[in-house]
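Comment thread on ticket #2218

A.B. wrote:
> Attaching the input chain for the structure job we discussed in standup.
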Amino acid sequence: MNRETAARTGPRPGAEPGAAPGARAGAGGTRAAARRPVLVDASGPRLPVVRRARLRPRYRTILAVDIEGSTTRADAVKAELRQVLYRLLEEAFNRAGIEERYREAYVDRGDGMLVLVRPFDEVPKTLLLYPVVPILSALLTEYNSEPVIAPGGDRRIRIRVVVHAGEVHNDGRGNFGEALDVAFRLLDSPATKNALRRTVAPLVLVVSDDIYHSIVRHGYEGIRAGSYAPLVHLRVTGRTHQGWVHDATADLAGPEASPGLAARTRRLLTRRAV
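C.D. wrote:
> Ran it. Output below, let me know if you need it in another format.
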């Protein structure tokens, strides 16, 4: 029954108040009208049911960033830091030749953002590790070198960056999927946060095991496997995932990895062998 039908079958003249549509009073109004069940109007729009067959995964390279200590900043400072980070990240992408047409729109995460890069031949994953991240680091260093401590709090920006790749879903309300779960868990892991606290660099990079084995270990231009250490271990959907943290100081130390990073790597590998 729709609204139009309900209107046509509404109370008739002479019906008792509260009687069901179509019910009439008896002689002299003494006979109680027979009550009919009330039908609920179900003609309104229904929410679509997402069927498994309609889930279409899209392969994307994933880059996400998060600002260190954002929750300790005043809202006015947060607004300024967000604006600066958007500007610097866009500049880093454009300098590396990853134009807007190769990327999806930034996904805001409050104190960070998510960038999904489409699988074009012109945009191999190597470009994110070099030169996007080094350019972003240099831009942050330049920004932080200015007198940015002003009334309202510290305006310096230090960030964590994760690079991963995999299948991503979108249901019209947002992106989701195991690949994003892994990326954000790597980004927010205690080991990644501790790595940023220990370094004087304005950012720390963590890459997934897939990125390490498919890209980093092959030593493409600007990428040195010796500057990455397997410091992050986590489980997502019943699987163990490893994250490799990049030590920017190792790139500046020469062809050999920095002693601290090399020592940590040896300890981890020895512990795993045991």
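A.B. wrote:
> Thanks. Noting for the ticket: The radius of gyration is 29 Å.
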